[in-house]
């Protein structure tokens, strides 16, 4: 049974449509991420699941039961906000116990559950403190403890890591995933950060302008983007105009000026079904720079000129020119980076390329 | 002079105009009043300087003064309570209105453009014997004779509420406006109804504003003297009216000084007690 089902959800604010005809099935116990830039409708979707917003059209079901008319306080959901939203006038223990007050839980059980929840987020000794005495990371753990102590049917996380600084964010990412797995709660996570989405999710829903662009496992979304938007939003990609010159059983052939003929496995271009113009997608980290003239083994070689170098310590981002095309490559630095102005041979593997048919975009 | 010395001096230089004004306009006159309160009024005309406790004895022992002081505190307390009950929903509405908060706040401040005395006197046109309310009720046939509604304790409280309500609303608004709306959403996600969430989260977090507004209303109404003159009857004098009587009518400056210091002391003690429990920091926030 699905934990959450959205059936043709539409949300309008006046003339503006924030979410278009969205349908979604979230499996019990899975970690699902709504990923997209700000204004893509991901938070609006989350707030509709939470019951903080009413959908203009469509149905929302939690555990198979329609909840459109169920007010938020009866939905049994755990909600975690970007700004923690802890009650500043209550102690940590009272914050965590808050939801238990509205459930038939005895005082003793409540105390035990609060202690367990604080243990789970690894802050067992902070029950007597007030939120303002805690660091941002600690506050977010307490907010998480408060949301899971009520054993919610679904845990909803609205950019919970965005307010933390970079190092802490990575720790919390691991921590959050650990907690989610240990209690097995169905989780819907909203973020604009592709790294978080890729690292934590069982399934990613990429959204743009109120529409779902792609639904898939992290690797699937990363390796086989279903649209140019997804290719560009997740990681640094090169999108090149090319033409498909042949489709055979398991492979498609792609040609573009300055490059050798590239034969891409069909599963990397599932939507290309006939010869014609295509978009060739190559991840920046899949283009490997070598000194000019390096003989390629199985790999394809392309002659390129380095136009600019963005030095990042362990890696460098190169801005390359191949004929009329501009490309980006991100390589680990071995010894020294290639200087701007140098001629290089760029190696790539056909199986690292993906392709999309070029459609008339509306 | 070293840089440290100069920096240590800088705040005092910046404060000096304000300090000078406070010393000249508040501290010095207050000292005069304290000194005056120990003098004696003599029938001859000129007061007798000295250290006499007669005024203080009269102010502290005469039940007439005690009763009026207690009545003043009672009226101030009722006014504060009514302002809180009327002001909270209004402040809540303004704080939560999606649209034009600034516009609503301007409307709230609008009455201050008209003199307080004129606003108070407007009640005579509404509640007077030939006022709007009586005329309307006679025209509708509800009553045959005009009712005497003015010049009692209720109209004094009415006038005070009219005057002080904006202060209360403003203070509560500032408190409510600073509360993260996510807190209420968090409370309802955890199972609290809107009302439970309000009682558990919003109300406690807005208490400082309510307390500051309450203190302001209480002190201002306890010290009022115009409202009872305009809207009160002969028996509705408040304590400040006694000070006025003593100084302006009887020309008894020493007694008037003692009475005004008594009111100051009582309100001062109440403020200290209040502050001990509710904190003053919010008052500055509410006024700013």
Explain what this protein looks like in three dimensions.
The complex is a heterodimer of chains A (362) and B (288). By secondary structure, chain A is α+β, with helices and mostly antiparallel strands. Chain A folds into 2 domains: 2-227, P-loop containing nucleotide triphosphate hydrolases (Rossmann fold, 3-Layer(aba) Sandwich); 236-357, Beta Barrel (OB fold (Dihydrolipoamide Acetyltransferase, E2P)), CATH 2.40.50.140. In chain A, 22% of the residues lie in helices and 38% in strands. Chain A has helices at residues 42-50, 92-97, 107-120, 136-148, 166-183, 194-200, 218-223, 228-233; strands at 2-13, 16-27, 31-35, 57-62, 65-66, 77-80, 154-158, 186-191, 203-208, 211-216, 237-248, 251-255, 262-265, 276-283, 288-291, 300-311, 315-322, 325-332, 343-348, 353-357. Chain A has a 6-stranded mixed sheet with strand order 6-7-8-3-9-10, sandwiched between helices. A 5-stranded antiparallel sheet of chain A has the order 13-12-11-14-20. In chain A, helix 3 (107-120) packs across helix 4. Chain A is elongated. Chain B is an all-alpha fold and 288 residues long. Chain B contains 13 helices and no strands. Chain B has helices spanning 3-36, 54-61, 63-96, 101-109, 116-127, 132-140, 153-177, 181-189, 194-222, 226-231, 239-249, 253-278, 281-287. In chain B, helix 3 (63-96) packs across helix 9 (194-222). The two termini of chain B are 37 Å apart. The chains are: A alpha+beta (362), B mainly alpha (288). At the A-B interface, strand 6 of A face helix 8 and helix 9 of B. Chain A: One of its GO terms (cellular component) is ATP-binding cassette (ABC) transporter complex. Chain A: Belongs to the ABC transporter superfamily. Chain A: GO terms for molecular function: ATP binding; ATP hydrolysis activity; transmembrane transporter activity. Chain A: Keywords: ATP-binding, Nucleotide-binding, Transport. Chain A: Residues 4-234 form the ABC transporter domain.
